[in-house]
Amino acid sequence: MRKILVVLSIMMLLCSATAALAAAPIKIGGLFAVTGPAAFLGEPEKNTLELLVKEANAKGGIGGSKIELVIYDTGGDVTKAVQLANKLIKNDKVSAIVGPSTTGETMAVIPIAEKEQIPLVSCAAGIKITDPVKKWVFKTPANDHVAAEKILLQASKLKQKNIALLTVSDSFGSSGREQLKQMAAKHGFKVVADEVYGPKDTDMTAQLTKIKAAKPDAIICWGTNPGPAIITRNVQQLGIKAQLYQSHGVASKKYIELASAQAAQGVMLPAGKLAVFDLLKKTDPQAKLLKEYNDSYKKAYGIEASTFGGYAYDGFQLIAAAVKNGAVTPAQIRDGIEKGGSMVGVSGVFKMTPKDHNGLDLSAFEMVRIDKGDWAIVR
């Protein structure tokens, strides 16, 4: 009898220890450009992650574990992003990181995530983040080559074969330029002008004057605000009639506001479905989630959710799905993200695999046209 009691006591202790382990909080880090030129990315990302963690903890956490959140503002600075990534891992002991906001910061942080073996779910779009695949790195925005293909498919439909490129000279712009040139050659387009501009440039009439002289059928601008908004105004000022395409890097109402509805009239770009969720068919697998996210964000912050905040939403949900399936350690979370199967998110329907750490395809975007200061889906 005594032996039975001893065995039962040991079993109870083991059960208690297991329960305590399961209930241990999980610490997640966030690296976002909340201030600085990329604040239009980082602020909604930070807001979204805080909102999701608050909602999750109000329901008892994830899989019985509360979520502890540590967020740092990188200011969009590469050096600062590296310092803060190290701080999150070595001082704060996070099990996973969502962010950074930009491609340049992410590329600088990747070696740290790989060395320290902490899953990093980037909110930046550059294809080099996940191609080639890095074991510990994932990203939630669709690859820029997917956005490039969406634009070129539209240009092809409209028989716009002579195209001009105007790309920003940062990591995002350089990656987009590379993808556009490769795909243009592959699909029979002729690049009649190839110009670049600096992230801090305030006037691009010099580049656009050269582009105008080349007589393109379409101009593809690749960058993030404020540059593309300035270019949009410059195109109008120079009386350029060629179709202007923007990248997914400006898929928020802020771009229209900066450019002005008049100058942006008719501009087309590939946008995540959140921008046009109220125009989607009810059968769209993302429609319900997008409405719920927008309503929740608007209730919390008084403004509509943005595509960029959606990148952080998806990053958190990928981590949360792994935790729900029993992941606790960084290695288990990494494996859970990679082998999680299909997940409906804000940015699209994710299908991560060991060979694809982005998991999105052309269905992640809708081609939209700006009409009277608002979005319209191009059918």
Automatic annotation (TrEMBL):
Q: Which residues form the Leucine-binding protein domain?
A: 25-359
Do you know which Gene3D superfamilies this protein is assigned to?
3.40.50.2300
Q: Per UniProt, which keywords does this protein have?
A: Amino-acid transport, Signal, Transport
Mind listing the GO biological process terms from this record? amino acid transport
Q: Which InterPro entries match?
A: BCAA_transport, Leu-bd, Leu_Ile_Val-bd, Peripla_BP_I
Q: Where does the UniProt annotation place the signal sequence?
A: 1-22
| Family listed | Belongs to the leucine-binding protein family.
- What name does this protein carry? Branched-chain amino acid ABC transporter, periplasmic amino acid-binding protein, putative
Recorded source organism is Citrifermentans bemidjiense (strain ATCC BAA-1014 / DSM 16622 / JCM 12645 / Bem)
Species classification: Bacteria, Pseudomonadati, Thermodesulfobacteriota, Desulfuromonadia, Geobacterales
